[in-house]
Amino acid sequence: MRLLAEFRRELLDEAESHGYGDIRLAHLQITGNVGTKGIRLTALAERAQLSLAATSELVNELQALGYLERRPDPSDARAKLIFPSPRGLTMLREASAKVQALEQLWGSYAGKQRFEAALQTLQDVLDATRESGRQDRGPA
User: Fold this and answer.
1) In Å, how far are 29, 52, 121 from 132, measured between CA atoms?
2) What pLDDT is stored for residue 133 in this prediction?
3) Which residues contact 32 (CB under 8 A, 6 or more apart)?
4) Half-sphere exposure of 86 toward its Cβ, with a 13 Å CA cutoff?
5) Which of 12, 13, 85, 115 could form an SS bridge with 107, CB 3.0 to 4.6 Å?
6) d(CA 51, CA 99)
7) pTM for the full predicted model
8) How does pLDDT run across 78-90, given as a tens digit for each residue?
């Protein structure tokens, strides 16, 4: 968990140095899960592991700051999809570059193979946890 805190601190520092000083720690849950192809609020809340109310509040904040926008869902006129705005896309590209730099740096500390194995182990645990959660909720 301390590594996650360090990761987030590094991302926030990078965001601030690139003119995104209005991004807060809580916003990272949204920006790290929104993607670029459009996502419904309910799916974003599940992906970000936040309540629907918290997700809605954070999306509203990020929309007001100019990072996100809502567009009609072409498959359901009643629904909206959340997309990064042009400013949001730029921020996401810059964040992705920082993530890659951190992965390279941290991989150099542990050795590339060990670091990649650790990442895969954590992904396996996350996947199993998500699968277990779906099974606990029963059929969709």
Assistant:
1) 21, 21, 16
2) 65
3) 48
4) 0
5) 115
6) 26
7) 0.82
8) 999 999 999 999 9
**3-state SS assignment for residue 130:** helix
Q: How far apart are CA 86 and CA 4, in angstroms?
A: 27
Q: Where are the domains of the chain?
A: 2-137
Structure tokens at 131: 């699968």
Cα dihedral 103/109/113/115 (nearest 10): -50
Residue ranges, the chain, pLDDT below 50: 140
What pLDDT sits at residue 127? 85
Burial, 51: exposed, middle or buried (Cβ in 10 Å; 0-12, 13-18, 19+)? exposed
- Provide the token pair at 71: 């567009």
